[in-house]
Amino acid sequence: MSLETTLTHDTWQCGSCGFVYDEAEGWPSEGIAPGTPWAQVPQDWRCPDCSSSKDDFVKT
Question: Coil, helix or strand for 31?
Fold first, then answer.
């Protein structure tokens, strides 16, 4: 089994505007490196499109 098949990346969608945070891509302009799991995104991080809190995101 290759490493590629054992790693998964989730996506999280903002319930207010539909913005999607993809763990594989991160959000480098906000200081979040590619591969950063949602649990490691700072709790005070806000949606870059509508400023909703992290609590407003749902796993997709």
Answer: coil
